[in-house]
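[job 0412] stage=complex_fold ligand=LARABZUK status=START
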Amino acid sequence: MDLIRVKICGLRTVGDVQAVAEAGAAYMGLVFFAKSPRNLTLEQGRELALAAPVGLAKVALVVNPDDPTLDSIVEAMPLDMIQLHGAETPERVAQVRARYGLPVMKAMGVASEDDLAGLMEMSLAADQLLIDAKPAKGELPGGNGLTFDWRLLVGRKWLKPWMLAGGLHAGNVADAVRLTGARQVDLSSGVESAPGVKDHAKIREFMAAVRG
Ligand SMILES: O=C(O)c1ccccc1NCC(=O)[C@H](O)[C@H](O)COP(=O)(O)O
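[job 0412] stage=complex_fold status=DONE, emitting C-alpha cells
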C-alpha cells in the first residue's frame, strides 16, 4: 500500500504534531468546533501550526463557519487548507476558496447510495473531497469512529482528489484501501486512547499498516 497519503485529524499537543510528522503523515487536522473534544482555541491552533515541519500540511477544520470565524482562524496561523465539515453548499465552498486563496476540502457524509449524488457536483467546487461516514442525529459531524459500507464507492470516480474517512484504524485500513481504491485516508478516533487524546503508538501502528 505505498503512496497512500494520510491525514491525522484532531491533534491537540505539540507532541502530537511531532508524532504525526515523524510517522510520515501528509496532513494534520486542527479542529475548531466548540462541541468537539478535539476543539482548539486560536492560540492553541497557532502553536500547533507553527510546530509543523515543512511537508506536513496544516488543515483547519470548521463546521458551517461564518466569515468572521474563518477570518480569525486564517489570520491567527499559517494554513495550507481549509476543511469544511458541515452542510456547506458548493456556492459556499467557492466563496471560501475565493476569499482566502486556500484550497478547500469538503467533507461529505455517506450512509447509502442516495448520498453519492451530491459528490460529483461538490467535486466541481472543492479542491478535494473527504468522504466520511454520515453521522446519526445528535452525533458530532465527524470524528465518531463510524465506518460506512465501503462497497458504495467501488468503481466511482470524482473530478478531484479525495480521502476516505470514517472509523479507520490499523486493523481495517488495508481492506478499506483495497476495496475503494482510495489513495488518501483520514482518521481521528482510530489513533486515540480517549476522545481527543492521541495515542502515539497507535499513530505509528496505523502508519505501519498503511505502508505495509
Ligand atoms: O474530529 C472531530 O471532533 C470533528 C468534529 C466536528 C466535525 C468534524 C470532526 N472530525 C472530522 C475528521 O476529519 C475526522 O478525522 C473524520 O470524521 C474521521 O473521524 P474518525 O471516524 O474518528 O476516524
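The CA atoms of residues 28 and 185 lie 12 Å apart.
[job 0412] exit 0
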